[in-house]
Structures are given as C-alpha cells and as structure tokens.
Specification:
Radius of gyration: 22 Å
Enzyme class: lyase
Number of domains: 3
Organism: Leekyejoonella antrihumi
EC number: 4.2.1.51
Keywords: Amino-acid biosynthesis, Aromatic amino acid biosynthesis, Lyase, Phenylalanine biosynthesis
Mean pLDDT: 95
Distance between the termini: 50 Å
Strand content: 25-35%
Bound molecules: prephenic acid
Catalytic activity: prephenate + H(+) = 3-phenylpyruvate + CO2 + H2O
Number of strands: 15
Number of helices: 9
Oligomer: single chain
Length: about 300
C-alpha cells in the first residue's frame, strides 16, 4: 500500500489535494507538521510520495516547497492537483467578533484574506501557524484564559467543523476564484509517460551573475517553442544577490522540443535540476507551433544526418 505524506494536520487544503489524488482507502495518508518534514520523510524512505503546496493564484510560489525541492537529494514531481480555496473565520463557541484581537493562520492564507481583515478586523494582530488546519486545531485544544496565542483562526470550512469551532464569517478570501496548485513528489524513478498535456519543472543555477544571464536561459525555451507557466527566482543562500530560477513549462522531457531545450540549458547553465515531467491537472494540451512539433524536429535531425552523409 502506497504511503502518502501531506502537510497536515487533517483539514488542510493539502489534505484535500491528496484526497482528490487518491481516496483515503487507497493508501496510507500520513500528516506532517511542515513541508520540510514531509519531504525529509520521503528522502529517508518512510513514505513513498508527498503532497505539498507549490503555487497559489493570489500569493504566488510557496518558497518553503521550492527551497526544499532545490536542496538535498533530488526528488521528482509526478503529478499536480488544483484546489479551489475558500476560507472562514472560526473561533471557540461564544467568541464575539468584536473581542478578536489576534488571528492565527498559515502565511499564504493570511495573504489571501488581508483585504477582508483590513476592512473587518483592522486591529487584529496576525499570528503565523504552520498550516490553516493547525491554527484551527491549536485554537480548539486551548481553553479560555490559558494563554492561547490567538483568538480566531482562518481555515477551510472543514477544519472549523472538525475542530468544533464556530464560523464567524464565511468566504473571507479577497479573491473568490483563488486556487492553490499542489504537487505530488516521489523519489526519482520512472517518469510518468507523456500525455500531450504535460508540464515540466526545473531549477536552473547560473555560472555567474552577468548581463543577459537570465535571457540566455529563456532563449533556450523560446527558441524551441516552449511556453513557460511559472518563473520564480529564489536565493541560492550562498552569497547575497545570488539567485536560481524555478521554472515550470508546457511539455514533457520526452517531447523533442523539450529534450533539445533541456540540452541547451544544460550547456549554458551551471546546473539544471530536473524535477520531473507530469500530466497537467487541467488536461490542457500545449499549443505547439508546427515548427516546434516532434515531426519538425525529427525531420530536421534526418536532414542533418543526410547532409553529414550518415
Ligand atoms: O495550510 C494549509 O491548509 C495548506 O494546505 C497550505 C496552504 C499553502 O501553503 O498555500 C495551501 C493552500 C492555501 O493557499 C493556504 C495554505
């Protein structure tokens, strides 16, 4: 039975992503206190795969996940899941909204309700927790007057319900169409086969900081007709001002144009960390120029072999 890890506790959006990928009865689902702990367990072999958040449509990339994927032993992304995000403000039964002085939640969740907070609880202090469901569980576990770090939690409706909290306000996200993208990560092994609607994730490290360095990397993608879907810079943590680039793009490593682009990046970059090719959650096929199709590349390779007399 596959052992899946996820950013817990129960009731996180990450658990919803894992349940959407595989129902609880089809594997062991094990909660972890942080993305780092889940990925460490995966590297150690105590779980077989981990579901982790990587990108939110409002707040952008999840740095903790990108950094954990870029460090230590390489891991592979084998799938992705999109989860619509809905937040509630929850508190212990009997709490009046006017009595709320502090609110606990995950940093990405706070970023998505900031406008609502300014409009409705402008004086409330923010207390960071490791997850939205962790904020709800922490609130439920404490009773009045025992020094709880916060008076209310921002979490998913299911986390408020599971923890017996009262919902003081529903749908408090500033953007009603917010979506978080999660990736299922495994130890490197057999890559999922191409489906025609795939994505590839890489991290590129440059030789040195110089004019046109990023352009040189991007040219490899543009020249091979590849559409990027995410580009983020992360500090390499070695020297101030030194960055690597976390990139998602359309296509699969076994597509001719992607293979050529990866070889190009390998030539011009100091290191390319290949994090996997996997089916897109939305099933949307890449729009590929006729000049960047597999047939076009194979025809050109044949032409070269012919003129070399091979
Ligand atoms: O705290 C949770 O419930 C999570 O699953 C983490 C997380 C995130 O890292 O972005 C996931 C979705 C929401 O955007 C807010 C928090």
């Amino acid at each position: 039975m596959t052992r899946f890890g996820y950013l817990g506790p129960e009731g996180t959006f990450t658990q919803m992503a894992l349940l959407a990928w595989r129902p609880a009865q089809d594997g062991e689902h094990r909660p972890f206190g942080s993305v780092d702990l889940a990925l460490a367990a995966l590297r150690e072999g105590t779980i077989d795969a981990a579901m982790v958040p990587i990108e939110n449509s409002v707040e952008g990339g999840v740095s903790a996940t990108m950094d954990a994927l870029n460090a230590d032993e390489p891991l592979s992304v084998i799938g992705e899941v999109l989860v619509p995000i809905t937040f509630v403000l929850a508190a212990r039964a009997g709490t009046q909204r006017s009595a709320i002085r502090s609110v606990g939640t995950h940093s990405h969740a706070w970023a998505q309700v900031r406008g609502w907070m300014v409009a409705n609880l402008p004086e409330a202090a923010y207390v960071q927790t490791l997850s939205t469901a962790g904020a709800a569980a922490g609130l439920a576990a404490s009773s009045d007057g025992d020094g709880t770090a916060y008076d209310a939690a921002v979490c998913a409706p299911v986390a408020a319900h599971n923890n017996g909290l009262e919902v003081l306000a529903e749908d408090i996200g500033d953007n009603s169409s917010a979506v978080t993208r999660f990736v299922l990560v495994a130890r490197p092994g057999r890559m999922p086969d191409p489906t025609g609607a795939d994505k590839t994730t890489i991290t590129v490290f440059q030789h040195e900081d110089r004019a046109g360095g990023l352009l040189e990397l991007l040219e490899q993608l543009a020249a091979h007709g590849i559409n990027m879907t995410r580009l983020e810079s992360r500090p390499t943590k070695s020297v101030m001002g030194n960055y690597c680039f976390s990139i998602d793009f359309e296509g699969h490593a076994r597509d001719e144009r992607v293979g050529e682009a990866l070889m190009g990046l390998h030539r011009v970059a100091a290191q390319v960390r290949f994090l996997g090719s996997y089916p897109r959650a939305d099933g949307r096929s890449a729009s590929i120029l006729a000049t960047a199709s597999d047939d076009a590349f194979l025809e050109a390779q044949g032409w070269l072999r012919h003129l070399r007399g091979e």
